[in-house]
Amino acid sequence: MAETKNITDKDIQSLVGNLLRTGVYVSMGIVVFGGIIYLYEHGTEKIDYAEFSFNKVSLKTVEAIFANVLTFKGAAVVQFGLLMLIFTPIARVLMAIVSFFLEKDYLYVVIGLIVLAIIMASLSGGFAH
Questions:
Q1: How close are the terminal C-alpha atoms of the chain, in Å?
Q2: Which of 38, 51, 120, 123 is least buried, going by the fewest C-beta atoms within 10 A?
Q3: Radius of gyration of the chain from Cα atoms?
C-alpha cells in the first residue's frame, strides 16, 4: 500500500517561511552583485550631489530594468534585486491563495485574490497617476 501524505498547516507555514527567507537572500545577493558591478564601472567618478536631474535616470520602468539587466549594468542589476525583494511578498500571497484553495477554504481564496488585486493596482501606478 502506498502512503499518501496530507499537507498540513505546519507544512504550508514552513514552505512560506522558506519562500520568504530564500527570496530575501536571493534578492540580497543580486543587489550585492549589482553593487559590485556598479562600483567597478563607476567607482572613480565624481558625483555632484547638489544637482539632481530626473531626466537622466534611465531605469524608470520595469521593462527598462529587464532590458538592461541582461547587459549586466550595475544599476539595473541592483534595481532587479530590489524588484525581486518587492515580488517576494507577492509570491507569499500567491502561495497563500493556492494553499487556501487546496484546503477548500474559498472565502480566504477570494480575500487573497482581493489582496493580490490591491497589490497589483498599487504597483501599476495606483490612483496617484
A1: 60
A2: 51
A3: 20
